[in-house]
């Protein structure tokens, strides 16, 4: 990385702060190939020493997904599962890592639940998304906990000036209405709204009942300048949803809210800083569940990032302070199950420079948690330009995942089958008394990852990565059993007992041929339990995708193939067959303001399964049809 080139790239640092917050970024200065998630500063994708994919608004409109799961499932290294139809629980496995080992940010804000440790992938619809950045590999040295498999950052739609409205209808009485209005000169503002509803699918294949889902979203934001060198942005995203489930869980209502306020300014010709205040809250009420619950998380974070241009190098120094409040109430009685708080302070630094003709990136971070104490993480990457079009890099990094509030604070609860159930425990051979309790002595799960990557740019753009990840101290809820007959008791508590490994490779290519734009990827990820050798649940060894898009006059046609090999559940004892699915979308430009889109999901009506419940397959959609009418002004 030559010094003059490096210094030129530093000039985009002010835009990094803008791109990191869509409420601040302006459409005229958006850099489609600029990534902010990988380094917390603006870098073009071709200079990064990480495996990265970026989905722009144009990509989203051409693909026409109806869910976030559908939007990202064709990316390299990504596997997904879902426990039923729309609105049901979604698992996203990045490079074979557990779904809670993926850090999800919405406009820079941590958006996962502090109780479950996972993001609610139903919280946002693709109509609300401007851009998605997927960075594979450990990034704990920048972000702290959770970023073992990588980071997925979602940027909601901001103030691209004008008015836009759309109406989508489809199979299973799917209906979605979306509108967005933005304007302003010195002070820019936007307002967006989206509602979605569907009669849904069966939750399990053997269950003929359908389980509907619906959601409503509101987004708003404003940004402007305070003085010559300072600007501000304020954004809010609020979602409320309702979904129905089978008799064991019943209906549930959820609320997710993200608020971000940031100030950024240039202190001198070499020093830029950004101060951000974030709040993410979520609530899940399941009144008929066992136990009936009303779980609420409130996460507040202060972030201070400093960018220093050191001539031929760049130094990032930052501090993150996060407070989490977690409460769990009995939804029927209102009794408090637990009400706890946790806090984390993280201090980090990242150095980017050229050394002996190589690109060098070094990151260090120290996190101090109020319960499990201190944790250090680091990342080291070295890259080299082999030619004008080829670049290679090697990296090694560590990461961790802190225990959730449920792991720590779940109170002592007893279930007696004769008192609370059917009294059939002896006849059917399961414990008559089940006790669950958290463990305040848990340690963080830890990982280390090594990777080598090759990037080749030309008429065909290739990306090839090999990686190996080892995870230790995995938290597992295991039981200790005592007694027999009517006194047979199982005590479930979380402990640090597990080890896992994820090894594999990713190959992707993009090119144009005969006026078609092609994207292809193939991944092989061997995710295994190191103690037993069994495959990790719901993670296929092989995934692949191929898409082709072309414009024919006023038509923009896209054909996409997504495929996955067999996956396993129950520690390798239950096999779920692999599948391939084809989706087709055609967008017709009627005039400068109106467009009409037709879409067919699962064109060949493929029957497939992503997950089961004790061997009973969860339902997946068959062939589905959607039509969208859009107005833009």
Q: Could you describe the 3D structure shown?
A:
The chain has 633 residues and is mainly beta. Helix content is 7%, strand content 58%. The chain has a 22-stranded antiparallel β-barrel. A 5-stranded mixed sheet has the order 3-8-9-6-7. Strand 25 and strand 26 form a beta hairpin. 42% of the residues are buried. The N terminus is likely disordered.
What's the short version?
By secondary structure, this protein is mainly beta. The chain has eight helices and 37 strands.
Largest sheet: 22 strands, antiparallel, barrel
Overall strand count:
37
Radius of gyration: 24 Å
Span of the ends, CA to CA? 43 Å
Strand content: over 45%
Shape: globular
Q: DSSP helix count?
A: 8
As residue ranges, the low-confidence spans are 1-32
Helix content: under 10%
Query: What's the overall average pLDDT, rounded?
Result: 90
Sheet/helix structural class = mainly beta
């Amino acid at each position: 990385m030559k010094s003059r080139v490096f210094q030129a790239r530093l000039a985009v640092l002010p835009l990094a702060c803008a791109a990191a917050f869509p409420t601040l970024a302006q459409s005229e200065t958006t850099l489609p190939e600029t990534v902010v998630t990988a380094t917390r500063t603006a870098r073009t994708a071709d200079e990064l020493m990480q495996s990265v994919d970026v989905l722009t608004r144009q990509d989203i409109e051409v693909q026409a997904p109806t869910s976030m799961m559908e939007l990202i499932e064709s990316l390299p290294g990504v596997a997904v599962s879902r426990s039923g139809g729309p609105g049901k629980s979604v698992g996203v496995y990045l490079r074979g890592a557990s779904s809670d080992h993926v850090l999800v940010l919405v406009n820079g804000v941590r958006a996962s639940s502090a109780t479950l440790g996972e993001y609610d992938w139903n919280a946002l619809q693709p109509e609300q998304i401007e851009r998605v950045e997927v960075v594979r590999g450990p990034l704990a040295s920048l972000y702290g906990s959770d970023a073992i498999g990588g980071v997925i950052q979602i940027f909601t739609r901001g103030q691209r000036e004008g008015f836009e409205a759309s109406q989508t209808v489809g199979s299973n009485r799917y209906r979605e209405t979306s509108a967005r209005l933005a304007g302003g000169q010195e002070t820019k503002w936007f307002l967006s709204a989206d509602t979605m509803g569907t009669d849904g699918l069966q939750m399990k294949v053997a269950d003929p009942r359908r389980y509907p889902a619906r959601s409503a979203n509101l987004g708003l934001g404003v940004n402007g300048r305070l003085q010559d060198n300072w600007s501000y942005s304020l954004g809010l995203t609020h979602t409320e949803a309702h979904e129905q489930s089978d008799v064991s869980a019943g209906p549930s209502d959820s609320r997710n809210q993200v608020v971000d306020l940031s100030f950024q300014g240039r202190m001198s010709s070499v020093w830029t800083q950004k101060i951000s205040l974030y709040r993410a809250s979520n609530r899940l009420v399941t009144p008929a569940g066992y136990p009936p619950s009303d779980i609420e998380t409130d996460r507040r974070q202060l972030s201070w990032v400093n960018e220093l241009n050191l001539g031929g190098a760049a130094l990032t120094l930052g501090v993150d302070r996060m407070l989490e409040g977690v409460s769990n109430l009995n939804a029927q009685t209102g009794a408090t199950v637990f009400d706890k708080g946790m806090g984390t302070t993280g201090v980090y630094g990242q150095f980017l420079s050229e050394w002996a003709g190589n690109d060098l990136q070094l990151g260090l971070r120290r996190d101090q948690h109020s319960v499990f104490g201190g944790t250090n993480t680091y990342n080291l990457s070295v890259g080299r330009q082999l030619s004008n079009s080829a670049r290679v890099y090697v990296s090694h990094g560590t990461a961790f995942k802190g225990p959730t509030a449920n792991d720590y604070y779940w109170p002592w609860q007893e279930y007696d089958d004769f008192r609370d159930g059917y009294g059939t425990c002896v006849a059917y051979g399961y414990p008559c008394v089940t006790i669950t309790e958290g463990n305040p002595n848990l340690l963080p799960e830890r990982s280390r990852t090594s990777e080598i990557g090759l990037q080749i740019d030309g008429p065909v753009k290739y990306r090839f990565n090999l990686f190996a990840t080892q995870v230790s101290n995995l938290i597992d809820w295991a039981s200790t059993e005592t007694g027999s007959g009517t006194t047979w008791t199982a005590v479930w508590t979380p402990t640090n007992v597990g080890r896992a490994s994820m090894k594999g490779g990713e190959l992707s290519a993009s090119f144009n041929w005969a006026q078609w734009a092609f994207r292809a990827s193939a991944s092989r990820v061997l995710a295994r339990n190191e103690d037993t050798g069994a495959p990790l649940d719901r993670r296929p060894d092989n995934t692949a995708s191929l898409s082709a898009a072309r414009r024919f006059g006023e038509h923009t046609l896209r054909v996409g193939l997504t495929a996955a090999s067999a996956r396993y559940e129950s520690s390798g004892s239950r096999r779920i067959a692999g599948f391939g699915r084809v989706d087709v979308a055609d967008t017709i430009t009627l005039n400068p303001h109106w467009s009409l889109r037709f879409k067919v999901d699962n064109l060949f009506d493929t029957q497939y399964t992503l997950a089961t419940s004790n061997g009973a397959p969860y339902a997946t959609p068959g062939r589905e049809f959607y039509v969208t009418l859009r107005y833009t002004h």
